[in-house]
Amino acid sequence: MRVPLSWLREYVDLPSGETGRDVAAKLVRAGLEVETVEQLGADLKGPLVVGQVLAIEELEGFKKPIRYCQVDVGQANGSGEPQNIVCGARNFKVGDKVVVVLPGAVLPGPFPIAARKTYGKVSEGMICSARELGMGDDHDGIIVLPRGAGEVGQDAIELLELVDEVLDIAITPDRGYCLSMRGVARETATAYGLPLRDPALIDVPAPNGFGPVVQVQDSLACDRYVARMVTGLEPSATSPIWLQRRIQKAGMRPVSLAVDVTNYVMLELGQPLHAFDRARIDGQITVRRAQPGEKLRTLDDVERTLDPEDLLICDESGPIGLAGVMGGAGTEIADPVIDPESGLGQGTTEVIIEAAHFHPVPIARTARRHKLPSEAAKRFERAVDPEAAPAAAQRAVDLLALLAGGTAEAGVTDVHSPRQPWAITIPADHPDKVAGMEYGRESVVRRLQEVGCSVTGTDYLTVTPPTWRPDLTDPNDLAEEVIRLEGYDRLPSTLPTPPAGTGLTESQRRVRRVGRGLAGAGYVEAQNYPFLGESALDDFGLEPDDPRRDLILLANPLSDEEPGLRTTLLPGLLTALRRNVGRGSSDLGLFEIGLVFRKDGANAEAFLKSPRLPVDRRPSDEEVAQLNAALPRQPRRVATVLAGARERDGWWGKGRQASWADVIESARVVAEAAGVELTVRQDQHLPWHPGRCAALYAGERLVGHAGELHPRVVKAMHLPERTCAMELDLDELVADGTRHVEGRHVSTFPVATQDVALIVEDAVPAAEVEAALRAGAGPLLEAIRLFDVYQGEQLGAGRKSLAYSLRFRAPDRTLTVEETTAARDAAVSAARERVGAEMRA
Predict the structure, then answer these.
(1) Between 20-29 and 181-192, two packed helices, what is the crossing angle to 10 degrees?
(2) Distances from the Cα of 78 to the Cαs of 75, 103, 123, in angstroms?
(3) This prediction's pTM
(4) C-beta of residue 767 within 8 angstroms of C-beta of residue 679
C-alpha cells in the first residue's frame, strides 16, 4: 500500500515538521512494515509552469513528425513573450493547456534543461510528459491539463503536487484494513496519540425500495450488496488534477472520471467499488454462482470460461462481472466522444455504483483460477469491512455529482444478511501474562478502544472487535494488539530455561552423523522446497500406478505447477543440480536429508474430525495420538546426486568421472553413520538406468536405490550426461530398533591378509559371494573387500572371476599361518557350497 504523506495529513493533524521517515518509524514501532519512503520531486527544480498552446507549425523532412510550437507562459519567462518549443508529441492542439519546463530548470534524473537547437529550430524549453515529471510511466504523449485547470504562467510544481513523500507499506494478510488510507490513518493517529478524522463517518440515507433491483442468490458468498445510481453525468467531464495525482501516487493509473472515483474511494475507505453503465444493464442485477459453460469477456478484453464456483454479477442477459475481481466489458463505462468545437461529449450519462461485501475465500479462488490479481480482489481476500459499503457508495455518488454535474437518485438498495457481533471475554491482566510485564487494566482498555473495540467489564473484559478487524477472534489476538501498540521494544528480553539433561534424541544424533559423513565425503547439503508437481514425475517416466504419483495436494499451494507434497527427494535435488550446472559448476555432489509424504498413511476424514490442539496447555496424549493417526506417513529420507568429475585432472594424474559406484558408496557412508551394514543387489527401478541400478538392503529390508539415471530422465530434466543418484529411507534403515553407534575396537595385534579369486556364473551377484565368504571365514574375519572383476575367454562364456581381499585378526593374539589359511579355506568352501564358486589358479 502506497500512502502519500500529503493525503495522510487530511485525516490526521501531524506535526508540521514531521517527515515521511518520522511517520515510518512510528508505524514500524506499531507493527507495520514500511519498506521504503519515496521522496517525490526531491531533485526537481523550476521554473515549471502552465502554458497554453498558441500555434503549431508542422516540420517536414524528418523521420518522425515534429512540431514547432508557440506556447504562452505568461510572465514566467520574464518577458511575457510566447515560448518557442520543439515537440514530437501529437496528442495536443492549439488552445490546450500543457506543462512547460523553462531553461534553467532541472527535471528528475537529474536532467537539466537549457535552450538548444534541434531539427533546425531553437527549442526554448520542453513540453513535459508524465514520465519526465516522475508522475508515472506514461510516455505516449505530453500532459494535457483539464479545462479550467490552472492559469497560464502558474507554478505547475504546486498545481500537480509533484513534491511529496510516499510510504510504501507491506500489508500482511491479517491487516487487510490497512489497504486503505482510512486504515493507515487510524494506525498513524494511534501511534501519535492524535484524533482521527474518519472519512467513513458521513451521512448515508436509509435503504428504500426505489433503488436498482438486486437479487442475491448466494447470501453466504455475498452477505451485503449496496447499489446507488447517478444520472445526468456530463460525459466530457474529466478527473480533477488533485484526484488524478492521489491515484498516481498510490500506484494506480487514471482512466476516466467514473473509474477514477471508484478507485479513489477504494484507496480511501478500503471498500472496492464497481461502476456499471446503466444503459447497458438489462433488467435486475443478480448475484449468483456460474453455470456450466458460461463465458464472460472481462474488462481486459479476454473471454473467460467460468467455473461453477465463480461468483458472478449478472443481469437478464447473463454474466456482467466476476464478483469482487473484475467487471465485464459489456457494461463498462463508455469512452466519451468529444465535440472539438463545443467541448461537449457523448457517452455514459447514467451510472450504477456497486458496493458489495464478498466472502474472502470464493474471491481469492476466482482471482487465482483466472489469474486476475486485481486491486479489488487483493482487498476482498484479506476481508473488507462490511459496514463500509453504504458509506463508500455515498462517497462515490457525492464525488460524481460534484465533479461530473450528476444527480444522485433517491433510491438506495441495500440487500444484506443480519450479522451478529462477536464478543471475546478475557481477564484484564491477560496481556500482562502474555508479555511478561505489567500494563494495567487502564492501558489494556485504552489500547483496545484505540483499535476500535468496544470494552466492558472490570476484572474480566468483554471485548467486541470492530467490523474491520475480523482477525481478532481469540484472547491472544487482543493481547497482541495491546503489546504492539505499547511497543515491542518495551518487552523484556528473557531466555527460557530449558530442562536439564535431555540433549538430542538418538534420531537427531543419527541425522547429524549422516550429514557429517556425507559432507566429509565431498557432498554439499542443499535444502529444497517440499513441493512437487506431476511434471517432475512425468520426467521420471513413472507408471500411473506408481505410489510416488499419489500426491497429497495442498489446499492453497504457493505454485500451481507444484500443488502437492513431495513423495521423493530426487526432483528437488536434481533441479538444484541443474541450476548450479547452468551457473557454471560442472563437478557437483549434493545431498539432502528431509521428510517425504506418502498418502498411504493419510485419513482425510479423520483429519477433519481431529481436535484443534490448544496453545495454552500441553495437548493430551490422546489428542496428539488422534491427530497423528490422521496424518500421512512421513518417512525421513536421504538422497545424493553426482555429476561431472569425482576426481579432477591435475599434475598428479588423470581424473575420474563420477559413476554409479560412487553413489552406492555414499549409501554405505549413510549406513555406516547409522550403524547398519548394507547389502547391494542388482535391480530395475525408475528413474534409474535399468542396467546400472542397485537395490539397497538392510538385512532383508529394501531401504533404497542407487545408480546412474535413465538417459530419458537425464534428457527430460536437462541434466549432465551420466548423472547418478541415490535415495534411501533413514527410518527403514533402523526399523528393527535404535542403534547406538560405537567406535571400533582397535587391536594391537597384527593383521593377516589372504587374497582369493573365485570363478562363478555371471548371474551370481557379488554380494552373495561375499556373504558366503563372510559366513565361512568365522569370527577371525575383520574385513572383506572386492578388488577385481574379470571376464575373458580363459574363463569361458557366462563366467566371471571375483577377487577378494580377506583381512584376519584376533583380539588377543597373533594369528599363525595355519590359522589364517584354515579360515581362508573355510571361507572358500562355504562359497563353493552356496554359490558354486571355484578357486581360480
Answers:
(1) 80
(2) 5, 12, 17
(3) 0.70
(4) yes
pLDDT, tens digit (0-9, with 9 covering 90-100), for 82-104: 999 999 888 888 888 999 999 99
Q: Is the bond preceding 110 in cis, omega lying within 30 degrees of 0?
A: yes
DSSP string, 769-821: HHHHHHHHH-TTEEEEEEEEEE--TTT-TTEEEEEEEEEE--SSSPPPHHHHH
214-416 maps to which CATH number? 3.50.40.10
**What are the pLDDT digits (tens) for 548-591?**
999 988 888 888 889 999 999 999 999 999 999 999 888 999 99
CA distance 356 to 266: 12
CATH topology identical between 506-598+634-733 and 752-839: no
DSSP state of 205: P
Exposure of 6 by Cβ count < 10 A (0-12 exposed, 13-18 middle, 19+ buried)? Answer: middle
Between CA 409 and CA 809 the distance in angstroms is 104
Q: Are the CB atoms for 50 and 99 separated by under 8 Å?
A: yes
Q: Are 569 and 727 in contact (CB under 8 A)?
A: yes
CATH topology of domain 424-490: Phenylalanyl-tRNA Synthetase; Chain B, domain 1 (3.30.56)
- Please spell the DSSP secondary structure of 29-77, one letter per residue: HTT-EEEEEEEETTT-BS-EEEEEEEEEEEE-SSSS-EEEEEEE-TTTT
Question: Domain 2-42+165-192: which CATH class?
Answer: alpha beta
In the chain, where the domains are located: 2-42+165-192, 48-162, 214-416, 424-490, 506-598+634-733, 599-632, 752-839
Structural class in CATH, domain 752-839:
alpha beta
CATH class belonging to 506-598+634-733: alpha beta
CA distances from 378 to 171, 198, 520, 646 (A): 11, 22, 49, 51
Which residue from 764, 770, 739 is spatially nearest to 836, judged by alpha carbons? Answer: 764
Q: How many CB atoms lie within 10 A of CB 127?
A: 27
